Amino acid sequence: MSTLSERILNAPAGEYVDRKVDRAYACDGTGLLALEAWKNMGASRLADATEFSIIFDHIAPANNTTTATLQHELREFAKSSFMNFSDIGCGICHQLMSEGVVLPGEIVIGADSHSVTLGAFGAFASGVGATDMAAIWLTGETWFRVPATIAVHLEGRFTGAAEAKDLALAYVGELGTDGATYQSLEFVGDGTKDLSIDERLVLSNLSVEAGAKAGLFYADDVTVRYLKERGHAVKPQVPETCTYLRDLEFDLSDIVPLIAVPHRVDTVKPVDELAGLPLDQVFVGTCTNGRYSDLARLARIIKGNKVAVRTIVVPASAAVLTQAIRTGVLADIVEAGCTIGTPGCGPCLGAHMGVLGEEEVCLSTANRNFKNRMGVGGEIYLSSVATAAASALEGEITVPEVA
Amino acid sequence: MHTEGHAVCLPEDIDTDVVIAGRYLRTRDRSIWATHVFEDLDPGLAPRLKGAVIIAGKNFGCGSSREQAAIAIREAGVVAVIAPSFARIFFRNAINVGLPLIEADISCTDGSAIAFNLAQGWVDVAGKRHDVPTLSPRMQEILAAGGLVAFWRKHR
After folding, report:
1. Beta strands in A280-386 (DSSP E)
2. Domain ranges, ordered by start, for chain A
3. Helix H segments across A196-268?
């Protein structure tokens, strides 16, 4: 009997296989290098059977002339090659792929490490670099070493202010930044049943922070309903009895708000241990926590009050932004004193739209707090949306009270 | 055929943001990446990398998928990286850009003489021989071609 990764890749763990890629996407950063590699391979047309996309999200809109010129070239290529193309402001590549595009059982490759996010749908989704992407444009295939799997058994429900991000930080803290290198994670157990797609996306998203090749949920009734609302008829995936390399167990009701402190995602502490730490910036957004449910949660907590520190909110996609406008969530956020950025990655990778000054401290809902990532000398703490919202109101790290 | 170099020791969990920072990514000038490689770790490191064999701790290259990290290391003149484990995307990227990687836990002294043979699976540290795992046949083929671009130029 097989793990979900073994089923989708159709081979046992440890084997090297070549597989057709169902969907392949690149962003403005990796896409450029991929284009250069693709040209240098002597290629002139795309492989037929794969659905290709280029999505501008990392530095969108461009921050200077050099970036704009490079993006112009990639934009022209995307259009002339008839790839699906999403220009600046459409949103983060992983988010767009999650809005009714990726389906259970597919093999999905993104030229970005957080492509693991799409494992939330029961797809085998993984990241590669630019030259691997170029080879997929050329051949429609890539090679894999079929990963062994670590099971993350979930039971119970979140209580208090805890949310999926806190659980994600908890499992990365337990595994360590290389605890799942070359392996997959599978989230299983009764505790998965009540998790929304948004929550699953958060849990799959962080799997690469433990080094994982993929982080998968089995498609179930929640998945089927979500995709049906977006025009797709899919079947649930039924787990088989299988052998896991290792088993982790979490009772969701035990999870408390957590923070990853600089400069490692696996250095995780309860928020109350850090309460009172002064902040210079709060950032809510990214492929981890920039969805509508995140913005709605933020709005619920800060509505009617004023943030005490500069707070940047970047919706993960245009669809998220539109929904937040329609429901009034965006007005609540802006009235509370937050500023809004163009849908995309925002300042997460330190290129624009909210980089930090030297010795500034940022509380971010993103997934990486590496040294200097958001600006030289800046320090990044990672938390849930609820913790970020409560902390924004106080201007210092604050334990969230409301769910 | 074997390759030689001098050892440069690095710690564990070197992430790709530290290898080449996000602020240097948007360019086509590869010499910029080579100049600023490891800048946030040690600004004086880049000039010492010509002909170097990096011997690092576990989980080398974790984080972002940026291929510029592997390119920067190669362009700075590094002949190979040895570490007990590599982050998987970095692993693929390095092979794809023609930077040899060796998965081995080897104690490091800065400046010691290193020789290695990828096909035969050994590393020689100051005259002492260590057996190391060989790469998969596919990866050896890609490396031998000089990277994945050259590999596909030849095979398509």
Report:
1. 281-285, 310-314, 339-340, 361-364, 379-382
2. 17-144, 149-254, 258-394
3. 197-205, 221-228
Query: ipTM for the complex?
Result: 0.94
CATH class entry, domain A149-254 = alpha beta
DSSP state of B22: G
- Burial of residue A295 (CB within 10 Å: 0-12, 13-18, 19+) is buried
Per cent of chain A over pLDDT 70 is: 100
The CATH class that applies to domain A17-144 reads alpha beta
Q: Note the pLDDT tens digit of each residue in A5-55.
A: 999 999 999 999 999 999 999 999 999 999 999 999 999 899 999 999 999
Note the pLDDT of residue B1: 57
CA distances to A98, A100, A331, B131 from A88, in Å: 18, 20, 23, 50
**pLDDT tens-digit map of A231-258:** 999 999 999 999 999 999 999 999 999 9
Residues of B with a Cβ under 8 Å from any A Cβ are: 13, 15, 17-18, 21-23, 25-28, 40, 58-59, 62-68, 70, 85-89, 92-93, 96-97, 136, 138, 147-149, 152-153, 156
Rounded CA-CA distance A397/A270 in Å is 11
Hey, do A17-144 and A149-254 end up sharing a CATH topology, with the first three levels equal?
A: no
Domain extents in chain B: 3-155
- Is CATH 3.20.19.10 correct for B3-155? yes
The distance from CA B56 to its chain's CA centroid, rounded to whole angstroms, is 10
Question: What dotted CATH number matches A258-394?
Answer: 3.30.499.10
